[in-house]
Amino acid sequence: MKFQVRDLGRLSYTEALEVQKETLEKVVNGESPSTLLLVEHNPVITLGANFHEDNLLLPIEGYAKKGIEVYRTDRGGDVTFHGPGQLVAYPIFSIAERGKDVHKWLRDMESAVILTLQSFGVEGGRNDVNTGVWVGSNKICAMGVKLRRWVSMHGLALNCNTNLGYFQLIVPCGIRGGYGVTTLTRELGREVTIDEAKPILIQRFQEVFGEETSV
Fold first, then answer.
1. For 160-180, how does the pLDDT look when each residue is reduced to its tens digit (9 = 90+)?
2. 85, 71, 56: which is closest to 154 by C-alpha?
3. What's the rounded Cα separation, in Å, for the pair 193 and 174?
4. Catalytic residue among 173, 184, 194, 197
5. CA triple 151-157-158, angle to 5 deg
6. Domains of the chain: which residue ranges?
7. Torsion angle (degrees, nearest 10) of CA 197, 202, 204, 205
8. What is the four-CA torsion angle of 108, 113, 117, 119, rounded to 10 degrees?
9. Residue 160 annotated in active site
């Protein structure tokens, strides 16, 4: 699979969502190759298709007072946080080119992240029940996708040096029972920025998904 990479820098969730939708239409219509969008968001809590209200630990207005947007989206999954220090990747990829296997698509995305963590000397793995990438019982990368005509949108969020305090305002991904959230910075005991992690994630996507072409 050939894909191109677009680095959007830092955008609000709603701005990046518009770029996703525009890119999706182009890929669906054959006007653009599969595209990996990379972005860092302003603080936002997104509510997925399987959202349960009790996974918000504050009233909606409470998040606004803290400068956090709340946005209901159409990706899979429950509630999650995006914000500074988190590398968000939206692969707008044609799944038809990879056998129309959604399960394999999710596992391949996890593989790209696990390989990224290996580059830092961090052992990441899968959880038998919950999608995403974990370090022990702590989630380091959340995932949620949606397909349209076998083209994927939404994607993954890798915690680099994210402020973990934000995750205490929600039940991340609706997962209870002793699970937590972590970052590369916490695991390594040193600051790991998005700029450090970004080229490595791109390289690992190349290894898992095929050839990348720059724009």
1. 999 999 998 988 766 666 688
2. 71
3. 27
4. 173
5. 130
6. 3-210
7. 140
8. 70
9. no
Is 3-210 assigned to CATH 3.40.50.150?
A: no
- Stretch 123-152: mean pLDDT: 91
77 with 49: CB under 8 angstroms? yes
Residue 93 has pLDDT above 50, yes or no: yes
DSSP string for residues in the chain: --EEEEEEEEE-HHHHHHHHHHHHHHHHTTSS-EEEEEEEEPSEEEE-TT--GGGB-S-HHHHHHTT-EEEE-SSSSSEEEE-TTEEEEEEE-BGGGGTS-HHHHHHHHHHHHHHHHHHTT---B--SSS-SEEETTEEEEEEEEEEETTEEEEEEEEESS--GGGGGGB-GGG--SS-EE--HHHHHTS---HHHHHHHHHHHHHHHH--EEE-
The residue type at 147: L
**pTM higher than 0.90, yes or no?**
yes
Burial class (CB in 10 A: 0-12, 13-18, 19+), 165: exposed
Of the pLDDT bands very low, low, confident and very high (cuts 50, 70, 90), residue 118 is very high
